[in-house]
Each structure stands twice: as C-alpha cells, then as structure tokens.
Recover the amino acids of this structure.
C-alpha cells in the first residue's frame, strides 16, 4: 500500500463515524483479494455495551437477493425450471404469471407485498410471518405491468424464488445457503436470520438521530430469500475475496450473476439476479444495499480495479454513500460536485406521470439541485448546464413539447402531465378495492382531511392528507414494515358528470394502479 493510499484510508476511518453517526458500524476495503481495510467502531448493542467488531453478526437484508439468485443458478441452471412453482403460489392471478427469470431481475410486474400489507391496515411493527406473507402473495389478482417490460422492486420476487427452490430441491433454504455457498467460500458464521426480532449475539439495530437520540428498532418480519442473510464483516470479506478469485471464470456464480441483463424490448437493464449494475468514477460496478429499520448495509465490486467495499451500520445512516466515500478513497477520486450557478427551471411544481398514475412533485433543493418526490423516497437531482436535472439515474428535461422524465433503469420515459390548481372538496367517505378486499377511509376531522387503509391485517392509522392538485392528493406513509416505506400514496379521484366523486386510484412506486370505488 502506498503512503498516499494509506493516508486516504486513515482519513476515511477518521471521518466515517462522524459523517454517518450512529451507535456502530464496520467497513472493509479490498483490492485484488487483499484486505486493505477491516475496521469496526462503536457498539453492536449500546445498552448492553457489546462492542461492534468485524465478527459481529449483522442483518445484511436485501444483499440476500444475490445469494438467492446464486442458489437458483447453482441448483437449476435455468431459472425457468421454477416457473411452475411460482405460478402455484399465485392462484388468483388473472393473467399469465411472471417467470422465475423475471423475478430474478425485478421485472415481474408484482406489487411489493410489504407495501400491499400496508393497504391491508398493517401497523409498522406488526408481525409478518410465513402465513401472513403467503396470504398477501396468494391474493394477487393482477400485475402492474407486463413481465419483462419494466423494473419495479418487489421483495416477494425473491421469497417466491426461495420457496419454489425449496420445493424443487426438497431441501431447506438455510441448508442450501450453508452447503452451496457459505461452506464453499468460507463464510463461517453466516446464516439464515429469518426472524428479525433478535440476533443471536445480541446485536441491535437502532432508529433515531444524534439530535433526537437512538432507540432499538422493533421489527417482527420473518423473511427468507428476500432479505434473510445474517453475516459478519469477516463473512462478507470472504464473499468479496471469492468474487475476485473467480473473476476470470465465466462459469463462476458471480460472473453469471453480474452478466448483462435486458428488458423484453432489448434495452439494457441496470438490475438483474439480485445485483444492481452502475457506474461510479467512470468505472463499471455491481453491488447491492440492504436495509431494515435500524440496519443499513452496502457492498460493491469494481472489476476493472478489482476493488470491493463493504459497509455495515446498525442505524439508518446512508450506507451506500459511505461505500462510495470508501471507493473514492481507494481510487484516489473525489465525489463529483454539481455544476455551479445554474438557473432554477420554471417547471417546478406538481405533475402526474401517465403510465403509473403517480404524482411527481418537483421543488428546489438548494441553489443547484432539485428534489423529486416520485418513487418510494425523494431523489436529489443536480441541475445541468443544458437545463436538465439528473442524478445519473433519473433525468428531468424540458424540450419544446413538455416536461419529460427519463428513468432508463426502469425502461421508462414519459411526458409528465401538469397537476396544478386547487384541490377540490367532497372526497371524504369510504372507498372499497374489490381486488384487495380492502378499504380506504377519508375523514374530515375539524376541517382537515385524513385517510387510512383497512384490510385483513386491521385498521391502519390515520394520516393527514396533503393536497397536490385538482382531485390529486397524497396520503403519507412514512413508516412501514420495511425500512423503505411506500412513501406517499397518490390518491387520484374521479368524478361523474354531476361532479360527485365515484372512485379513487391509489398507488405508490412499489404498488400502483389500484381502484377503490366509493361505498
């Protein structure tokens, strides 16, 4: 290691705990299979004063998805072998079921089951075990897009894969992980941490902030192939060393996982086999993050540099941002800064995306950036010299024919529809969704409208509605079963010729285009 690199990594270690504050964390950096940095700080359990170490067991959450897909490829060769098992778990779907390959690529068209659970009135801390998960998944009656045509994150894609894989092999998912991956690559303490209530070594995940204080997060989800992997930093170092050691073997698991993926129309896809594909500092990389309330992690591999980074936080700081800081340090690069002194565009405000039916709200985020509220979390887009705004994934541009939003990672580009004007009255009442067998109640509470969902999981909490435009409202969902909640539900009301509200279309990025008719 050169003196310059050593100094950069020393600065990284000094800065990370303060730039991403919380009870504890860990980071590893590897190059060419050699560990350059292996460090942990703080506490895995602050109340019991258990230190966070490289051997601390950690919930890697959605990093699990690449391991699930690796098992599918290892056991089946062709994921299509599992198509029948997927179809059998969607008994009420009124159209062709997505194939297992579409599930591997998050191109299934299924609405995310944790988001749909919120439409059934689930409290954020409610239990969601195997029976509840199967109930939500089996209740699927339609898809939100044709399989292979779009990308949308749906956690049950990978639960369905692990369930179908167990049926196909006659072996448990935990046993398959141990025998086919963990033992092979040297992940000695990794295991299937299906129950999110507790870790065997006492490690806790924490909600909160330094200003407001931290408290242990309460989670009661049971998961498998979607997010169940428990592993230490040392386990993940073993995985990264295996990835680099097999980099030239076209038949290796990671080579097969990280190969090119396309949509049905031939367009390149930025996600496949449980891995995101992207570019940072001019170099191609693959990786994935993981999150649950109290837990954030990220791993990435840059093949051209043979560099791996792993970051783990037992709190809700931005693990991906920290991983990119670490990558910048090892490469000797600087995180890019936006163009300076860009004029603010005249298309800020409320819009609606026509294909998904979702609202798109655009506002200033400082002098040189915009904040877009469209997906399950707000996005920062930097203003560009050509008048557009971009974050490398989403682009907003305004040619003469209107305002366009390009999301190539979803295989989607659309001209947004303006949604400006005062929100109209008369929307209070009860609405019923026949597809879900669920309800939406909107109440006028002292002149302030509130809304809540109800279904077979109970009656959800009332939240104050936010007006967006004429007959367009947002129902916030800031907390949910998953770390990343649905965000704001778009409520688009429709009226008859007499001006009476007759139905509302409900949707968020994770679960869209559901019709509730006025009771």
């Amino acid at each position: 290691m050169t003196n310059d690199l050593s100094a950069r990594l020393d600065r990284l270690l000094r800065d990370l705990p303060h730039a991403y504050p919380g009870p504890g964390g860990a980071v590893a950096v590897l190059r060419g299979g050699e560990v350059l940095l292996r460090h942990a700080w703080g506490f895995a359990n602050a109340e019991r004063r258990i230190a966070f170490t490289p051997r601390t067991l950690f919930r890697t959450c959605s990093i699990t998805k690449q391991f699930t897909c690796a098992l599918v490829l290892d056991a089946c060769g062709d994921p299509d072998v599992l198509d029948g098992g997927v179809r059998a778990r969607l008994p009420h779907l009124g159209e062709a079921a997505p194939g297992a390959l579409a599930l591997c690529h998050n191109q299934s068209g299924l609405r995310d089951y944790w988001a749909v659970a919120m439409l059934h009135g689930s409290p954020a801390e409610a239990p969601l075990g195997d029976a509840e998960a199967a109930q939500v998944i089996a209740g699927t009656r339609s898809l939100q897009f044709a399989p292979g045509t779009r990308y949308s994150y749906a956690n049950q894609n990978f639960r369905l894969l692990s369930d179908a894989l167990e049926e196909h092999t006659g072996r448990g998912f935990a046993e398959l992980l141990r025998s086919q991956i963990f033992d092979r690559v040297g992940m000695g303490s990794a295991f299937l941490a299906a129950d999110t209530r507790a870790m065997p070594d006492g490690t806790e995940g924490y909600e909160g902030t330094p200003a407001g204080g931290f408290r242990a997060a309460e989670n009661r989800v049971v998961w498998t192939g979607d997010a169940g992997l428990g592993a230490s930093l040392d386990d993940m170092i073993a995985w990264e060393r295996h990835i680099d050691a097999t980099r030239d073997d076209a038949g290796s698991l990671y080579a097969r996982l990280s190969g090119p993926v396309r949509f049905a129309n031939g367009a390149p896809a930025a996600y496949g086999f449980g891995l995101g594909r992207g570019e940072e500092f001019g170099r191609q990389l693959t990786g994935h993050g993981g999150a649950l309330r109290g837990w954030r992690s990220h791993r990435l591999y840059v093949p051209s540099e043979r560099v791996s980074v792993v970051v783990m936080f037992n709190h809700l700081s931005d693990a991906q941002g920290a991983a990119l800081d670490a990558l910048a340090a090892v490469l000797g690069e600087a995180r890019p800064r936006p163009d300076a002194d860009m004029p603010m565009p005249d298309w800020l405000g409320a819009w609606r995306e026509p294909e998904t039916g979702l609202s798109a709200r655009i506002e200033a985020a400082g002098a040189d950036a915009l904040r877009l509220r469209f997906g399950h979390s707000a996005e920062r887009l930097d203003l560009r010299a050509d008048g557009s705004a971009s974050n490398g994934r989403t682009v907003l541009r305004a040619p003469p024919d209107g305002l366009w939003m390009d999301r190539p990672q979803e295989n989607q580009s659309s001209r947004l529809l303006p949604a400006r004007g005062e929100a109209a009255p008369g929307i209070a009442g009860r609405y019923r969704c026949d597809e879900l067998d669920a309800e939406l109640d909107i109440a006028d509470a002292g002149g302030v409208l509130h809304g809540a969902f109800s279904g077979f999981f109970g009656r959800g909490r009332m939240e104050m509605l936010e007006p967006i435009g004429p007959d367009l409202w947002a129902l916030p969902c800031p907390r949910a079963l998953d770390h990343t909640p649905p965000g704001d539900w778009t409520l688009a009301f429709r009226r008859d010729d007499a001006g009476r509200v007759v139905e509302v279309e409900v949707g968020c990025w994770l679960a869209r285009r559901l019709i509730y008719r006025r009771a």
In short: The mean pLDDT is 96. The radius of gyration is 23 Å. The longest strand covers residues 34-45.
